[in-house]
Amino acid sequence: MADSGTLVVLESEGNGRMCLTLPETLISVVGIEKVVPTWSDLEVFLQLLPRSSTGERMNPYTSTWTGVTPGDGPRDFHLVLLDNGRTDVLADTVGRQALRCIRCSACLNICPVYERTGGHAYGSVYPGPIGAILTPQLRGMSSEVDRALPYASSLCGACYDVCPVAIDIPEVLVHLREQVAEGPGHLGEKAVMAGAEAVLGSARALDAAQRAAGLVGGDLPRHLPGTAGTWTDTRDVPDVPGESFRQWWKQRGRR
Fold it and tell me: How far is it, in rounded angstroms, from Cα 206 to Cα 163?
């Protein structure tokens, strides 16, 4: 708490309490986003965390300490407030909501992707949906793993539904994907999307494309070359009808 300098550890096994009392010199490293103003503010989180994490009314162990006490516990206490990229995250008006996370694991419990992959696949101490949006921001998209994490999601929105502090994780995932798409590794994808925008954004262009596709009909290849082959390896390219809906409606819709 900012008003008293008290530090708090919430846990379920008692290991944290052992680590707080045994060492003569206690060094605590705390992210700057974990500072709350007063004890009254802490009360909210003490109720929110266990209910969202394990469905319990309260967590088994809540340890608080303020400085040192002669003859009991550590002789020296040092507090390190860690930035480590958090100020940069705060500057992003969309991504900053990731800093609201209280580490309850609700999004991990519900995520179908995390259920299949587990924690080590995320390459960070922050796994699951929250890790997919927090790690790339803290590390600044500095590796291929960071650039891949925003895609470790089906965007089903279940994580947002269960988040007790209302972090819109799908929104941040899409936001980070836009940043990844600005890099050189997605030029082909950007070109395809630009072409799709040009066709779908114009009724005349869409009509011309549909007419051209209708002439090809069922002669489309079943397996596309290059990068597109990863799509057709697991999907069938449907036959293109000889007549589009627009053409059908023009001829029959007014009857």
Answer: 41
Least confident interval from 44-53, 62-71, 218-227? 218-227
Q: What is the pLDDT of residues 6-25, one digit of tens each?
A: 999 988 888 888 888 889 99
Q: Give the pLDDT band of residue 219 (cuts 50, 70, 90).
A: low
Spatial neighbors of 217 by CB under 8 A, at least 6 apart, are: 239, 240, 241, 242
In a domain, 192, yes or no: no
Query: How many other CB atoms are there within 10 angstroms of residue 195's CB atom?
Result: 12
Which tens digit of pLDDT belongs to each residue from 191-203?
A: 878 888 998 999 8
Centre a 10 Å sphere on the Cβ of residue 242 and count the other Cβ atoms it contains.
Answer: 13
Give the domain range for residue 95: 86-182
Q: Is position 237 within any domain?
A: yes
- 26 by DSSP, 3-state: which? strand
Report the amino acid identity of residue 4. Answer: S
- The domain boundary, picked from 133, 150, 182, lies at 182
Among 146, 144, 150, which Cα is nearest to 171's?
150
Number of domains present in the structure of the chain: 3
3-state secondary structure of 119: coil
Can you tell me the distance from the alpha carbon of 99 to that of 82, in angstroms, rounded to the nearest whole number? 13
